[in-house]
Amino acid sequence: MSVIKDIKQERINLRLKPEAKALLERAASFEGKTVSSFILTSAMTTAEKTVQEHEVMRLNTKDSEAFLEALSKPVQLNKKLLDAFEEHDQRVTSR
Question: Coil, strand, or helix at residue 37?
Answer without folding.
Answer: helix
